[in-house]
Amino acid sequence: MAELSESEALEQRLKSALWYSIGKIVDEESLKLDVNATPQFIGALTEMVWAQIETVSKDLESFAKHAGRTTITTDDVLLLTRRNEGLESLIRSFVDGLRGASQGGRGGQGKSRRR
Amino acid sequence: MPPERTSGGSGTKRKTTAFKPPTRTNSKPSSTGGKTSAAKASSARSVAVDVDDNDDADQEPAPVASQDQTPTIPAKLLTRLLHEHFEDDRTRISKDASQAMQKYMEVFVREALARAAFERQESGVSRRGDAFLEVEDLEKLAPQLLLDF
């Protein structure tokens, strides 16, 4: 009983933190899009993001496991985006930017598929 | 229906790309990268405090805005959430991958907002001057959004 409510409390805290940071994005974006969002909208969006993180984390874990790894790499994240070309190219250029920033090395392995 | 989606999507992509430069320049140099993550960590900490207390609700926006130019889901929070849902405790995530995930979730949120606002502008302009996004707007776009991500 006590343990269960403890994990529930943890989930509530994490959800609150997520709610807060999503609220900040909504505030910024609603200025640009010239709309307002109700608190209920932000709450529902938080629930959606929460559910998406849940699915995505299990997918990533499975992808890494399938490749015989226990560490999730950027290749796994790119595999997530395989069905959405626009998203894939966006994340791919982001990842390439990260690689370019960290070092010039390790270039040829993962990113050669499209670029 | 498909043409609407395409136009909404491409419009969003353009917008999202416009946000990218500030985020990237923050994370590119290793020296500033450290500062950014430190700032994010402290903001994540303050998140928990603020949410629990709700005392300084009026003071919140100013310090946060100065910490993060482009609001996003804090890296620490997202990594924590991902680890929370892993089935295997040994599963780890590389730093680059978690940053890419941060980007992914940010795009997800912004795409949801852009689609909701797009739908609102298409249908609800005649109803009222200032548009308020409601839960039902999210309900309408959720199935397609989840298929796209």
TrEMBL record, chain A:
Transmembrane segments: none annotated. The keyword DNA damage applies. Keywords: DNA damage, DNA repair, DNA-binding. One of its GO terms (molecular function) is DNA binding. GO terms for cellular component: FANCM-MHF complex. One of its GO terms (biological process) is replication fork processing. SUPFAM superfamilies: Histone-fold. CDD domains: HFD_CENP-S. It comes from the Eukaryota. PANTHER family: CENTROMERE PROTEIN S, CORTISTATIN. Belongs to the TAF9 family. CENP-S/MHF1 subfamily. This is Apoptosis-inducing TAF9-like domain 1 family protein. The lineage of its organism: Eukaryota, Fungi, Dikarya, Ascomycota, Pezizomycotina.
From TrEMBL, chain B:
GO terms for cellular component: FANCM-MHF complex. Residues 50-59 have a biased composition (Acidic residues). Pfam families: CENP-X. InterPro entries: CENP-X, Histone-fold. Gene3D superfamilies: 1.20.5.4980, 6.10.130.30. Signal peptide: none annotated. The keyword Lipid metabolism does not apply. Keywords: DNA damage, DNA repair, DNA-binding, Nucleus. CDD domains: HFD_CENP-X (cd22921). It comes from the Eukaryota. Residues 30-49 have a biased composition (Low complexity). SUPFAM superfamilies: Histone-fold. The keyword Ribosomal protein does not apply. Residues 1-72 are annotated as: Disordered. One of its GO terms (molecular function) is protein heterodimerization activity. One of its GO terms (biological process) is DNA repair. It is found in: Nucleus. Belongs to the CENP-X/MHF2 family. This is Centromere protein X.
